[in-house]
Every structure is written in structure tokens, then in C-alpha cells.
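Re: the 168-residue chain
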Amino acid sequence: MEKEKWLKILAGLIASMFFYAAFSKLWDYEQSQIDMRNQLFPNAVADVLTWLVPVIEFIIVVLLVIRPTRLVGFGASLGLLTMFTIYIVIALSMIFGRTPCACGGILNNLPYEWHFAFNLLFMFLAYRGIGLEKGWTLKETWTQIKNTWFGLRKRRLKKEYMKNLAQG
């Protein structure tokens, strides 16, 4: 299949997911607000995020469906999904002592482990979209993912090692 068709498929899948997420949050705004107020931040912040998150999701949808802004849309998708995934990892670690959020829509009744897998899938799709937009092969995309995610850990470990060496 040609590159442009794959880009349309990837952008369409991610845009559909974000459209559904935003629409379901706004469709049942009161429940979304209750869920958001169950977070660990003040209600004033929760009230802003209750409408801000769906607005950001709709903006990402628009960026993904307009060809000249598609690369930005893939990047914004990857960024937002990364933030959500980090939050899920924190929730799974039980650092809060409770599960602070119930996601809406189709993910509502699924455990956090499924949310995590769902996010990883869509993160990969976004990363692949970035790779296709930049002309990377699938192997180059995997290399970029590896260098980004595992490279961060490697740099952190090297920094800690150097710091420990300097301290003696």
C-alpha cells in the first residue's frame, strides 16, 4: 500500500479515537466533571481540565485530518498519549493509594492494564505516522522509538554513574 494511504489510515484511526474520547466527555459532561474532580488536584483545576482536555482532543483531530498539519497532529497525539500513559503507570503503582480516575467511553469498564496497552498501541500508531511523514522505514521507526525511550534511560544511568564516580 502506498505511503499516503497508510498515513490516512493511521491519522484516521487516531483521529477517530480522539474524536470519540472528546465527544463522550462532552456528551456526559456532568459525569466527566465528577470523574475529573476525583483526581488529586484542586476542583478549580479539575473544572478547567473537564473542558480543556476534550478541546485539545478536538484540536488534535483537526490537525490529523488536514494534510499539511498531519505531522503536528501525530506529534500532539504522541505527546498527549504519553502524558496519559505516564499517569496510568503512576496509578498502577498505587502511589496514590487509590485509583483516582475512571475513564469514560469504551475504556470505562476496563482495568488500567488494558488502558496501558491501548495507549501503547495508539502511541505506536502515532510514532509510525511520524515516521512515515518523515520517510522512515518501519525498522528506522523502531530504532527511533528505541533511541527515544531507552536512550533516555541510558543517559540517566550514565549521568548517575558519572555522578557516583565523581563523589568517589
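Residues 138-167 form the longest helix (30 residues).
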